[in-house]
Write a sequence for this structure.
């Protein structure tokens, strides 16, 4: 096969305690998956079906990292999330079968240009430019599932300049990992290399140039991001 342009470098994430890399195919993100966060964003936290948006694969950045404050926003927000990495794909996956498809997990930040997101909501337009911008998904190294005790409970937290901002438990998810991955597989054929960012707890807020963000999920990993 001959390409008319040089193919882009494969997007990837580090694998914990190795020099290996996890190839990223797609990034799916679950919206409003914690009740308290749904409330702080002015939404009804009742258990409605999950919904998803996407980020481009090359939005991933290995942590620790230094990221420039993105263009076209005056209101950049942090959203700490558990990330699951699929090792096998499928369609119409049963919830109880989801764990067999998960290769590992990581910690990520879904950076959001909140002012652009609000404009998109107000004008009933897509969220792409508020969520899928360059370097909008910094992540810790992916830890294989053999080294992870649980994806159903564990503290999830984020500090900005050592000040606590987000602090909850992944058990607080409205839709568990098994439930929302299974639901997503009804709409798309999931594949090896897909990442799923599983939603953020309450406490999201703005960051500025010079801020240092640290966060993690107990038993999964930690990350550090400096905004430059």
């Amino acid at each position: 096969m001959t390409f008319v342009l040089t193919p882009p470098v494969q997007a990837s994430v580090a694998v914990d305690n190795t020099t290996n890399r996890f190839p990223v195919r797609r990034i799916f993100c679950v919206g409003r998956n914690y009740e308290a966060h749904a409330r702080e964003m002015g939404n009804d936290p009742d258990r409605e079906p999950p919904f998803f948006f996407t980020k481009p694969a090359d939005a991933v950045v290995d942590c620790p990292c230094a990221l420039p404050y993105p263009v076209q926003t005056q209101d950049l927000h942090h959203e700490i999330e558990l990330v699951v990495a699929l090792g096998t794909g499928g369609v119409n996956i049963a919830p109880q079968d989801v764990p067999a498809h998960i290769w590992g997990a990581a910690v990520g930040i879904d950076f959001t240009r909140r002012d652009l997101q609000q404009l998109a909501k107000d004008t009933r337009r897509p969220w792409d430019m508020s969520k899928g911008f360059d370097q909008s998904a910094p992540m810790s190294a992916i830890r294989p599932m053999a080294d992870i005790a649980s994806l159903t409970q564990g503290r999830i937290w984020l500090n900005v300049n050592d000040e606590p901002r987000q602090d909850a438990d992944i058990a607080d998810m409205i839709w568990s990992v098994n439930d929302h991955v299974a639901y997503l597989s009804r709409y798309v054929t999931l594949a090896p290399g897909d990442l799923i960012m599983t939603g953020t707890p309450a406490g999201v807020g703005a960051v500025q140039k010079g801020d240092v963000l640290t966060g993690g999920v107990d038993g999964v990993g930690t990350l550090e991001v400096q905004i430059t």
